[in-house]
Amino acid sequence: MDLRQRIRTSQALELEPGSKAVVAGWVDRLRIVGKIAFVILRDLDGLLQVVVKKNQDPQLYEQVVELGQEDVVAFKGTMVESKASIGGKELVAEEMRLLAKAQKPLPIDPHDWEKTGLSKRLDWRFLDLRAPRNALIFRVTDEAVNALRDYYRGQGFVEVHTPKLVAEATEGGAEVFPVIYFDKNVFLAQSPQLYKQMMMAAGFERVFEVGPAYRAEKHHTTRHLTEFESVDIEMSFIEDHEDVMRMVERAVIHAIDRVRTRYGERIREYFNVELTTPRDVPRLTLREAHELLKKHGYTPSDPLDLDTEGEKKLGEIMQREYGAELFYVTEYGWEGRPFYTMKKPEDPRYTRSFDLIYRGLELVSGSQREHRPDVLAEQIREKGLKVENFEFYIRFFRYGMPPHGGAGLGLERFVAKLLELGNIREARLLPRDPERITP
Prior knowledge:
Elements (H helix, E strand, L loop, with lengths): L8 H5 L6 E14 L2 E8 L2 E8 L4 H8 L6 E10 L7 E12 L17 H6 L1 H4 L3 H23 L3 E2 L5 E2 L11 E4 L2 E5 L4 H9 L4 E9 L12 E10 L4 H31 L11 E3 H10 L12 H15 L3 E5 L22 E6 L2 E8 L4 H10 L8 H4 L9 E7 H8 L21
Parallel strand pairs: 3-5, 6-10, 12-13
Antiparallel strand pairs: 1-2, 1-4, 2-3, 4-5, 7-9, 8-9, 10-11, 11-16, 13-14, 14-15, 15-16
Helix pairs in contact: 5-7, 8-9
C-alpha cells in the first residue's frame, strides 16, 4: 500500500461504487458487531466508515479488532454503496497498514471535549483539535483572514510586514512587554501603527498587514489575549474617517459572506449559529450611543468612552430594534484614544475615530490620523510622552505626509463572534494570557 495514492475521506465518498481507494487517518471509533468490524476513520475532511468481515479475511479482521481510538491507520479497499453509512458509502477494506499507535489511556477524549475544562483542553491542544467542532474554528479563521486579504488586495492594498521589536511603546502607556535586546531594553509591538504610517509617507498609499500584536494587560476575561492576530490597514488621501469606515465594513461583510457560503451549514451543525451577511451598517456617534443606552436604563461609566457592558447592551438594542448585528460608534473622546488620532475640529474633546461593533463586541478600532507634524508633537506631549522618543516617527511627517487613516481588526474576536464562542481563547491556536505561556 502506497500512501502517495491516499485520498481524503471526502474524495472517497465522491467515487463511484466499485472504485478502489487508499484512505488514511485516525481511528475515531471502532465497533464490533458479530463477525464484522466497523472502523470510523477520521481525517481533516470528515469521517468514512471502513468495513472488515471476518469470514472474508480472518487475518485482516484480527488486526482491525486490535485497533484503539486515535491510532493512525491506512486502508486500501473498494467503495460500495451503503445507506446506513456516512455519506451513503463505505470502504470494504482489503489491506490495512498501522502507521502509529496512540498511548492509552488518552489524557482527554476529543469526543467528550465539552466535559473537559478549557484549561486542560489547552494543555492537550493537539488532541483537543482532533474534535471536528474545534478544528472547524481554525478552518473558519483561515477562510476569514484570506477573505480579508483578498478584499484588500482587490482594493489596491499592498501587504507589508513590520517589526515586532520596537524602541518605544506604539500606543503609549504601560501595557507593553519589555524585551532584552542585546544591551538595550525594547518592547514587543502593541500594533504596527507607526510603521503603517511610515508607508503612507513612503508613497505606498494603501497597505495592510496580518500579524501578531502584544498587550501586557493582566486581564482574565473571556475577550482578552496578551498575544493576538491583528489585521491592520492604512490608506492615504482620505477626506475623513468615513472613508476608512466604508473600506473596513466592506471587507468585514465580504469575510462574513465567504465564511457563511463555505461553512454556514457546518457552523449551524456544530455551533448552532445562523450566519447572516449584513447589508447596512448604521453609524452612531458616541453621544448618540450614550443617549440610546440611557433610554434603555444603562448609564455608561465614562462620558467620553463606551465600556464593555455598554458595548454588549448596545449590541442587544441595535439587534433587537434595528436588526443590525454590525454597526459603528464614532467620535470617541480624545482622552481615551492614542496620540496619533485626529481631533474633531469642531470639538477637540472628541476625535475622528470609530469602533466597529459586531454582536455586542468591539471588532475594529480606527481613525483618521493626525498628519500635521507640529500638531502631532503637541498631542504626544498631551499624552504625557516624550517627543524626543518619537523623533524617528515625527520625521515621517516633515517631508510631505498626505491625509490618511486606518484601522485594526482583532482576528480572534472576529472568529469568536462569528461562532459565538464563550471564550476568545478557543479562537487562538495556542493562546497566551497572564498565566499561560505553554504549550
